[in-house]
Fold Helix-turn-helix domain-containing protein.
Amino acid sequence: MSEPRRIADLATLKAFGHPLRMRLYGALKMRGTATASQLVDDLDDGTAVSLVSYHLRKLAEHGLIEEAERREGGDARERWWQAAQETLRIESKDFRDSPEGAAAHTALSRVMYDQRRDHYLRFLEQRAGWSAEWQDAHDSSDFMARLTPDELKDMTAELHAVVARYTEHGRTADPEGREMVGVHLYAFPMRG
């Protein structure tokens, strides 16, 4: 997988901003690799394999996903897919100078928030099914801090570095006892 990718062009932003494409991308990040048929099973909402295949090709056209190695024993006609990068970065400064770009960035941000909220709500609904250790390890916090823009950037960079360190450790350590963990961070100015 390649280095983190910054989405700075409107066409890619719009392609990624489609709610189903974002769900498919997220499912690939969770699974590592998958076929369209497997992703349809993950969606569990009646979406047709042909529609999923179409959206996977659109993600691939913009370099967001790529073909993965075929798995042994699988159907040779099926294509395997994976995320093309470990991390995507989308910055408002790349889109704020045009009304269309700003609107597309806001729309994407709303879809991302909705999907992250849904993941957390699913955890809350299923929390009793997790072990006591996982229930006790989970966190939901909020903080208020008076910061300058530069301090906010510095704090965000430090938090990203901490997450990156744990992510890398999880990739190389013994997989026993490990689960995929969602870490959602929002840091923004507030008034009133």
In short: Residues 141-192 form one domain. The chain has a mean pLDDT of 91.
